[in-house]
Every structure is written in C-alpha cells, then in structure tokens.
Amino acid sequence: MGAEEPLNRPHQSAHWFHGRDGLGDHGYPSPKKSHEKLPALEAIISTIESNPGLVLVTLGPLTNVALALELNPGIAGKVSVA
Length: 82
Description:
Largest sheet: none
Radius of gyration: 15 Å
Helix content: 25-40%
C-alpha cells in the first residue's frame, strides 16, 4: 500500500477514468503474482538498494517516491538517469 493522500493538495478520485479495478475496467486477467507485502516506501527503498542503476518508471503523482526519498535520500544516487 502506498500513501493514502497526496502531499500538497486534497485527494481527487479519478475512478470515473480508472474504473473500479484501477485499469479502466477493461477486463484484464488477474495478476499472477501476489501484491507486494511491504508498504510502498519500504518496497521502493529496498528495490532500489538491491538493484543499483535501476531505471524507475513512474506514472501519475509521485507521492510514494517523494516519501521514500524523504525517508532515505541516499536512494536518489542509486537510480539510473537513463
């Protein structure tokens, strides 16, 4: 799970666009892998720490990335700028 709300503005739901499943209700098959057990901040930090040079691809608000950087600023230098 990630942050419940954005950092600098009230939450604005986009369920009208993203649907109930978060993917526009297009009927994609269920994931084969189970969800991440760690909270988002810990998962981001541990993944970057374990994979220096990783390219971090993001979509939408970057709240969890910002909070991970706040918690562990050292991860910034371990991500590739490709």
